[in-house]
Each structure stands twice: as C-alpha cells, then as structure tokens.
Design brief:
CATH architecture of the largest domain: Sandwich
Shape: globular
Helix content: under 10%
CATH topology of the largest domain: Jelly Rolls
Strand content: 35-45%
Radius of gyration: 21 Å
CATH superfamily of the largest domain: Galactose-binding domain-like
Order of helices and strands: EEEEEEHEEEEEHEEEEEEEEEEH
Structural class: mainly beta
Length: 343
C-alpha cells in the first residue's frame, strides 16, 4: 500500500497542531497542518510581502536551519512523510530533515526543545520546489511529535505525516465504550472498492463533517455490483452500536447498507443485515449480542457517499492484552491485514 493512503496523523482535523517554530516571519506555522491543499493568489500581498498558504521563514544571513514541531493528533507509527512545497518556487528550502519523539503527557515547548529522545525519521534530503516531496519512513516506533527542519530557510506549504495510530490502552479503559473504528483509537482502512471522489479515511475522522467533501464518496456504478470499505478496529472488540452517517449527502447517499465483522479465526459474521439508509441522516443501530470482531466491512448498495462510520464498543480481554503489548513495545502489528480476503 502507498503510505499516502494511510491517514495523516498530523492533520488539524485529526487534532494535530504546530506547537513551535523558531521563525515564521513571512507565513504562519499553523498552515503546515491544514487538511486541504494549499492555494495561491498571485495578486495577494500583505504587510509582510507575498502571502503564501504555508510556513515561510526569513532569509538566513548566518549558519543554521529553521524548524517547526508538530504534535500529532493521533500518536502512532509513521510510515511516510510528505513535505509539500506547493507554490514555493524561488523560496523553498533546498534540503529538509524530519525527526520523531515519543513524549509522555503534555510536554511544554521548553521540554520538547530540551528532549534528547528525538529519532531520525527522514535524513537530511534534497527537495524540489512546488512539489509533493514524499519520503518513506522505516522506523517502526510510536511517536507523539515530529520536528521538521529546513536547511537553511524558506517555505513549506504542508507537512503530511502518514501512519497508523497506536492508542494508549489505559485511556481506552478509562473511557469505557469508545469508537473502535476511529483513527485516534487505532482504527484504519485496510481495503476499499473505490476512492474516486474522496478518501475512505474520512469515515474515521473525529467530529462531525462540515460538508460533503469531508466524507467518502464513490463513482457512480454502471454494473450490478456495490462498493465497500474494510476497517481494522483498534483491537478485538465487542461492538454495541454501529453508526452510519450520511450527513450532507442529499442526492447521492447509498440506498442500503450491510455490516459484517471478521472474527479472530478469520470467519465473517453478519452484524447488520441489508438496511435502507436515508440521505443527510445520522443512523444508529444497536447490534445486540454481537460476537468479538477484529475488522468490520461496510457494504453500500449500490454506491454513493457516506460521511462517518462509528463502531462503539469495548475491547475484549484478548484485544486489550494485544494492544497493551503493542503499546509497551511502541509498534503497530506486523501481521498482514485481511483486505484481500474480504467476502
């Protein structure tokens, strides 16, 4: 799988934030984690010069580099980083590097700057202007923060940190019933039939959608099939309530949906039979005595758009133990996902 199909753990709509930058003379650091692509207006000038939709530092007249620190909205294992220099053509940094840190609690800026546990994710590497510069990351360790360094100065439009969230099992225990499909709780899309209009990762984002573009929408089918998405839960769970939200999909919501769950032994079980859906509606379905499952598959009939998929439940003892083991090791599962074996 291309790592860019994984969720962006640093995006603002997942809870990411740029907590520090040593310089933002021309453009604000917060732009780095804006979910939408950068935009550009050639005629837009402000009191500090040309307005850029990104982070831009002043021209250095001494040795050194500029840097920004991003707190991930969903701490986890980083599989790849994109340093997007969109619209920066004569003022992009020639080289960048990226580091990661696993910090406990809510560290201050001073604590982050003084921390000695930063690990190299992307070595100092050349980048191009007006380009999505993609770097695969081979460090299989959980991080909570990333530090982008630009050498020596310049502008970056967006920083994308794609990976798999690894939640704290103690937090899930304290919360009780939680959404085990949510990105922040370790849910992840492992297979999907169609991503024509938008990413299925949108289904697992926190909070309500703000428009139709913040959901998952497929192309119009011209055959007898249907579209579907498979999601690995944060761990083996018993799901009590499923939520299928078609908010903002007024004339292109699916007509019907089914839900199936994958058991630990690999078999599939029906969680929700074929059920009619309404447009622009937050549907909630109690699942009764559902068996423990590790994955869920949503089938929409025949096609259309869905805003959110929530699977509210609790980890089983087995799921809690496996998540705890991964948490202590700071790594995500090494076993393959089951997308190709979907029913």
């Amino acid at each position: 799988m291309d790592f860019r199909q994984l969720p962006d753990l640093a995006a603002r709509n997942v809870g990411g934030a740029v907590v520090y930058a040593n310089d933002e003379a021309f453009a604000a650091k917060e732009n780095l984690v804006t979910p939408r692509p950068a935009v550009f207006d050639a005629a837009d000038f402000g009191h500090k010069g040309k307005v850029y939709d990104g982070w831009e530092t002043r021209r250095r007249r001494e040795q050194g580099h500029d840097e920004a620190i991003v707190r991930l909205g969903a701490p986890g294992v980083v599989r790849g980083v994109v340093v997007d220099t969109a619209f920066f053509t004569g003022n992009f940094p020639p080289e960048v590097s990226v580091e990661g840190l696993a910090a406990d609690g809510h560290p201050s800026i001073a604590e982050l700057l003084a921390a000695d546990g930063w690990t190299e994710l992307v070595p100092r590497s050349p980048v191009k202007g007006d380009t999505e510069n993609a770097f695969t990351v081979a460090v299989d360790r959980r991080v909570t923060h990333v530090r982008l360094r630009i050498h020596p100065d310049g502008g970056v439009a967006r920083l994308r940190v794609h990976g798999e969230a690894l939640p704290d099992p103690a937090l899930l225990d304290a919360l009780g019933t939680v959404d085990l499909a949510a990105i922040e709780n370790g849910g992840r899309v492992v297979a999907c039939s169609n991503i024509f209009y938008s990413s299925p990762n949108n289904l697992l984002l926190p909070g309500p959608p703000r428009n139709m573009g913040e959901g998952w929408e497929t192309a119009r089918r011209r055959d007898d099939g249907n579209d579907w998405v498979e999601v690995a839960l944060g761990g083996e769970s018993v799901i009590a309530v499923a939520e299928i939200d078609t908010t903002y999909f007024l004339h292109n919501a699916p007509g019907w949906a089914t839900l199936r769950g994958r058991k630990t032994d690999g078999g599939w079980v029906e969680l929700l039979p074929r059920t009619a859906l309404l447009p622009d509606t937050r549907h909630r379905f109690p699942l009764g005595a559902a068996p423990p499952t590790t994955h869920v598959r949503l089938d929409i009939h025949p096609d259309g758009g869905t805003a959110r998929l929530r699977m509210h439940g609790r980890l089983t003892d087995r799921g809690r133990a496996e998540l705890g083991q991964r948490w202590r090791a700071g790594v995500t599962p090494t076993t393959r996902d089951h997308g190709e074996d979907s029913p």
